[in-house]
Amino acid sequence: MDYLSINKATWDKRTDIHLESSFYDVQSFINGKCSLNPIEKELLGSVESLDLLHLQCHFGQDTLSLNRLGAKTTGVDLSSKAIAAANHLSSKLSLDANFFCDDIVQFGEKNDKQFDVVYTSYGVLCWLPDLSQWAKTISNALKSGGKFVLVEFHPINDLVQGYDYFEKSSADIEKEGTYTENCDGKESTIVTWSHSVSDVIQALIKTGLEIKQYIESPYSPYDCEQNLQYVDGKGFVKYHKGNLIPQIYAIQAIKK
Ligand SMILES: C[S@@+](CC[C@H](N)C(=O)[O-])C[C@H]1O[C@@H](n2cnc3c(N)ncnc32)[C@H](O)[C@@H]1O
């Protein structure tokens, strides 16, 4: 199965929808709004003058927000539509980011540049079959002492919705709409994999990264699925049998 072509077609379709959505609110971004949330900003720290690689950057709002904060940014994404939109935004805003359209693992095999920071966030890992290759891409792209930051939706939330928590040998292949409010029943095929948190952590440790922080939170910054409730000033929550489900987790690690 050519999962990269299937997922690329889906993300190309989703990009068109996302660019028109209030969820991504591109006009506010153009007007100067930063798309980053407090949790990733805190874990990244100051990015002023740092060389930063953003993996699975979608159409580049976070990459360009980091650019506005003074980083020299490079974004990589599988979707050619997303990368075209990212390049368009970058030149419209007179920012100086580099964008590459590629599978992150294939990018990693060609890349010989080493970065101060590698960043990736929110809905990235389920598209990747092999976390050891993912972690190798990150480790090889980091300078010694460089920092890795991941902020991801918590897989316990997927478990509660009926998906596997632990990795299995086969992918989940489904038809699904996207997560923005304007999706309007437009479904496309997605090929995804489950990854437990321990598999993520172990993959990073095995490539020589030292985990400095691991954070879990019941508050998601995004209203991107059903049955979420908003808690003023904190974010979106969901309950299971009356108790809060972890919505997101974050890892900060340093390359030794
Ligand atoms: C949910 S989005 C990431 C969200 C992102 N933080 C944002 O700004 O909205 C997932 C992204 O992963 C990309 N993607 C999926 N599989 C990929 C792969 N194998 N290599 C590179 N990018 C991939 C998709 O094209 C999509 O843009």
Automatic annotation (TrEMBL):
UniProt domain Methyltransferase type: residue ranges: 54-150
Entry-linked Gene3D superfamilies: Vaccinia Virus protein VP39
Keywords carried by this UniProt record: Methyltransferase, Transferase
GO BP term, example: methylation
Top-rank lineage group of the source organism: Bacteria
InterPro entries, A to Z: Methyltransf_11, SAM-dependent_MTases_sf
GO molecular function, one term: S-adenosylmethionine-dependent methyltransferase activity
Annotated protein name in UniProt: SAM-dependent methyltransferase
